[in-house]
Design a protein that fits this description.
Length: 123
């Protein structure tokens, strides 16, 4: 049986790549989805730690069989759709973690989800 960790952050709480690999090996986890965190105006600024896509793309390049890179730009960024498209071209394979405080009914979310769907990315 293959076990996949579908929610892992590289760089959060000082968790680095060797620590993630150790945790995976100790728990029989074959693969892990590495998720970003990007918010332009986080409501809890004191808890916000930006997690850009570059380190997870590097982790995936180094260990392609162990990590699946995800990226979720802030939907309020006017360049979000373009950034998703560029990230897919760079190897992003999913959209996550989307942590912004916006209602699903907001038109900006609808536009965002259209781009995500156009690339057939899991969210």
């Amino acid at each position: 049986m293959n076990m996949i960790d579908s929610h892992m952050h590289l760089g959060l709480a000082d968790v680095d790549l060797p620590a993630i690999l150790r945790r995976m090996d100790e728990n029989g986890i074959e693969m892990s989805w590495l998720l970003t965190w990007e918010e332009t105006d986080p409501p809890l600024k004191h808890l916000y730690i930006p997690l850009p896509p570059e380190p997870i793309l590097e982790a995936h390049a180094k260990y392609p069989g162990r990590f699946i890179p995800f990226y979720a730009p802030d939907p309020t960024d006017p360049e979000a759709g373009k950034r998703i498209t560029q990230s897919v071209q760079r190897g992003i394979r999913g959209c996550g973690e989307l942590k912004v405080s916006i209602r699903w009914e907001d038109p900006v979310i609808e536009q965002y989800l259209e781009v995500v769907q156009s690339h057939r990315l899991p969210l």
